[in-house]
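Can't attach files on this board, so I'm pasting raw text. These are the components:
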Amino acid sequence: MLYREAGQFKTSYTADMAIFPIRQDRIALILLLLFAFVGIPLLAHFQLWPLGSDYMLRAILIPFLILSLAAIGVNILVGYCGQISLGSGAFMAIGAYSAYKFGTGVHIPLEFLGTEIRIAPLPVLPSILLGGLMSAIVGILFGIPSLRIKGLYLAVATLAAQFFFDWVFLRVKWFTNYAPSGSIAAPDLHFFGYFVHSPIERYLLCLVFVTVFALIAKNLVRGNIGRQWMAIRDMDIAAELMGIRPLYAKLTAFAVSSFIVGVAGALWAFIYLGAWEPLAFSIDRSLQLLFMVIIGGLGSILGSFLGAAFILILPILLDQVPHAFGVPVSVETVSHLVFIVTGALICYLLIVEPHGFARLWSIAKEKLRLWPFPY
Amino acid sequence: MKADVQERSGAAGAGHAGTDRAIGDVLLSVENVSLAFGGVKAISDVSFDIRKGEIRAIIGPNGAGKTSMLNVINGFYHPNQGTITFKGTKRHDMRPYIAASQGISRTFQNLALFKGMTTLDNIMAGRALKMRRGLLWQALHWGPALWEEIRHREAVEKIIDFLEIQHIRKAPVGKLPYGLQKRVELGRALAMEPELLLLDEPMAGMNLEEKMDMSRYILTVNDQFATTVALIEHDMGVVMDISDRVVVLEYGRKIADGTPDEVQRNQRVIDAYLGISH
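---
Top answer:
Structure tokens for the assembled complex are below.
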């Protein structure tokens, strides 16, 4: 009754092609954005529930936003273009370490040529974007095998990227500026002369990045290139016979996906971790991102957010449950229980709705359009 | 567009010979083409041509090499011998997307739609070649990229109107009934505005009514847009009614070539494929 599109006529193709063609959706999105941009900072400022302490921002909202961004990147490659990748963690690492190198200054001695390459330390924003760019370049390189191999074999090829870069960042000391422990700290976050320091500022910074990149991703997937990606995913031979070049479609998917994942990696390192070592971007991270995308919904930007929320927040919530009920169990038991319950829930969800949360959401919307009538 | 469709709707049953269309020069010629997969010879030494503006049928029993022939024409298979000349240029290294950009589009025997996409997106994907805006413009979805999108959307809406599939515009094609899927696939091929349209069994598995609809669409496309059509079909009634010339293949060899009347009277064709009506 509330969610009804009767009477909303579209008089132009622009209106029909809008991201949210239904008015109620637009209102909901505006409210959500208002809450995220204004409401949460206000709550944090006045220290109201649930933002009484920094915990909510630091441990939940900031990682949720950054992992959502990474999941959007993975979704473009896996969900929209159908190229399975297990190397997302590596691309996050490339983004993070490249941003670190650009942020602290690049020095490549080329003694055998009698010269050297020296780039002065760049400000944070260009460093992060250049980190994304480096990740995109490496993504294109590792995307080349996808022109020949498909499915699980491609997954194995991307797995090679994961192990290779784990090794590179651990062993090649140049990347960590010869830090003895291998652990490095992010440069100070100065944006246009403004020092981003407190949790709420960090949160807003992430929010801006995520909003901008989610919009860009949505624009790409609803445009010509997005249709080419999906065509390659659904029926690559037919797509090629329609004049879609697999080379261009697949490599752009790898490039765009790696760029977004790389930016997310730089944010993860700079904003969430602050100081990190290669372990932060291990195979676990790749798998986590892949699960987010599968559970959230392959081929859906909204699904990336839902998947990230589920995978990240569910364990935290489950962790709180025994304490909330005052059940006397040890911390260790709780953490084991969290694993068991999360795993079981994932299996259950995939059996009930293999297309993920995004599909559940669209089914709910269909039902809501008719509610309270059965049809 | 609607009026044209209705005007022509009787044509399928009435036969195609009466209309005076201009059949032009040779658009595509196949000369001594042979194709083998390992030891299996799919096509041996076949030559025929397709003239501009005609409806050309390729018929023959199962396994005669008809679909392989279409695959050779649109560059998916490379012939082991022989040459193909399209619009007066001899082909060398052919890739499917080059054939597509030269104006050859096709439909498939077993549907090859993009199942996860809507009808609209499927047909829009057929215009991928015509859209030129780069990634950055598309990322903004504004200005030139938006105008381009709208311009192509208008063209696609015309096709949707023509094929009478307005009601399924936003439906995912994977869930549509078979007859509609076939229509969407034709729409996708038409979106490329092809010069040569290859149809691989456009009427397979359809009932009489759907066959009549499909015949009507093919005739209208041929008539209104002057699109040359080459089709493979097993329904002899349809083939003999709508095509201008028929080539008959058997075991990869050409056994007859001519107007429907000539082919129907050809003894080899009767023996190999048509049989005798009792």
